[in-house]
């Protein structure tokens, strides 16, 4: 494009257009800096989406803002691609044979493009700021990867992602009529636990989400989803369960008060609790409060190792080995 600098016979518009694409021009430097800032904001937005995405089905306000943020990300990506496309077009144009109409069109595009970049930055900033505030209020970890698990497993995988038979089995277990346990006293009744076992990456969470959202489980009037941290924090999990049920921030810091508050919120409700990715037997501390929920409540567990679930006699297999295990 060096030859463009010397072609002024096409009119005064040409230098105006060229200065936005010339590597050495001040105008181009300003625009490139704006594009660079927009790209940096996209990285920040991507990290925020990763932080909040697995919580969107628990909190409606996160789901709504996440949708807005993804739209803003999409628009920002289109803006960056538009700049790159126009730049390639300018670089490949034979300006000696370019009609004035094309130059005029390019000039009009340049005039409005800077505002387009500013608008994209503004939208990203707005929705990122709103989403960060909500995530912080729910104490959602800044870096979800810090709870990542080892990717090795000595057991063979079972691929049940998207398979209807496993979903139907789970629904059949969770839809068991209350009459089946009506003869049990309150002290005898044990909340059923449905395990989903397998190595990482084969779809345990995806399957549990399908179960969680299945319309046939309408009898559960309260549903709770917990992404379990690798180091089980009973106090934090109790607080998250309360917040999931009440949709409000919980400020209790005492474990006994948290347990009492949770029992109060679920005592007259049929509860479906999902504990996603347990990594110890500490989750059993939740059996006490969950047994206070109404009859028909249940727990779904996802885990990589059967040893974390075999230590309880709450497992529900309907008289047969669960097809959700790795021993298919």
SSE run: HHHHHEHEHHEHE
> What distance lies between the first and last C-alpha atoms, to the nearest angstrom?
65 Å
Count up the helices: 9
Q: How does CATH name the architecture of the largest domain?
A: 3-Layer(aba) Sandwich
Strand order of the largest sheet: 1-4-3-2
Instruction: State the domain count.
Output: 2
- Please, what is the average pLDDT? 74
Shape call: elongated
Could you give a short account of the major beta sheet? 4 strands, parallel
Strand tally: 4
CATH domain fold name of the largest domain? Rossmann fold
Which class best fits the helix and strand makeup? alpha/beta
What proportion of the residues is helical, as a percent range? 40-55%
CATH class of the largest domain: Alpha Beta
Tell me the radius of gyration: 28 Å
The CATH H-level homologous superfamily of the largest domain: P-loop containing nucleotide triphosphate hydrolases
State the low-pLDDT regions, or none. 1-15, 145-162, 179-185, 317-323
Keywords: Coiled coil
Organism: Rhynchospora tenuis
Protein name: NB-ARC domain-containing protein
InterPro entries: NB-ARC (IPR002182), P-loop_NTPase (IPR027417)
What are the main properties of this structure?
328 residues; alpha/beta; Rossmann fold; 2 domains; four-stranded parallel β-sheet; 9 helices; elongated; NB-ARC; P-loop_NTPase; NB-ARC domain-containing protein; coiled coil
Describe, in plain words, how this protein is organized in 3D.
- With 328 residues, this protein is of the alpha/beta class.
- It is 47% helix and 8% strand.
- The protein has a 4-stranded parallel beta sheet, sandwiched between helices.
- It is elongated, with a radius of gyration of 28 Å.
- 27% of the residues are buried.
């Amino acid at each position: 494009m060096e030859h463009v600098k010397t072609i002024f016979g096409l009119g005064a518009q040409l230098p105006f257009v060229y200065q936005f694409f010339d590597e050495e021009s001040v105008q181009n430097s300003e625009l490139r800096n704006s594009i660079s800032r927009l790209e940096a904001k996209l990285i920040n937005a991507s990290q925020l989406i990763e932080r909040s995405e697995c919580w969107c089905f628990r909190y409606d306000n996160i789901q709504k803002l996440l949708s807005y943020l993804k739209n803003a990300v999409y628009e920002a990506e289109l803006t960056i691609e538009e700049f790159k496309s126009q730049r390639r077009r300018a670089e490949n144009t034979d300006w000696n044979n370019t009609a004035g109409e094309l130059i005029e069109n390019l000039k009009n595009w340049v005039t409005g493009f800077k505002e387009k970049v500013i608008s994209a930055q503004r939208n990203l900033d707005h929705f990122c700021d709103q989403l960060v505030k909500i995530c912080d209020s729910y104490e959602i970890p800044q870096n979800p990867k810090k709870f990542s698990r080892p990717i090795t497993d000595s057991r063979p995988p079972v691929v049940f992602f998207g398979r209807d038979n496993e979903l139907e089995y789970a629904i059949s277990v969770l839809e068991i009529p209350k009459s089946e346990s009506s003869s049990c006293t309150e002290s005898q009744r044990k909340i059923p636990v449905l395990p989903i076992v397998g190595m990482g990456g084969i779809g345990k969470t995806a399957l549990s989400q399908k179960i969680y959202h299945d319309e046939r489980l309408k009898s559960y009037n309260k549903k709770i989803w917990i992404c379990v941290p690798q180091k089980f924090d009973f106090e934090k999990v109790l607080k998250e369960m309360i917040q999931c049920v009440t949709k409000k921030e919980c400020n209790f810091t005492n474990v006994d008060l948290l347990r009492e508050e949770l029992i109060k919120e679920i005592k007259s409700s049929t509860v479906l609790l999902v504990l996603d990715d347990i990594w110890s037997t500490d989750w059993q501390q939740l059996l006490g409060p969950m047994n206070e929920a109404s009859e028909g409540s249940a727990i779904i567990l996802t885990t990589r190792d059967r040893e974390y679930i075999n230590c309880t006699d709450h497992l529900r297999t309907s008289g047969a080995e669960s097809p959700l295990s790795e021993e298919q």
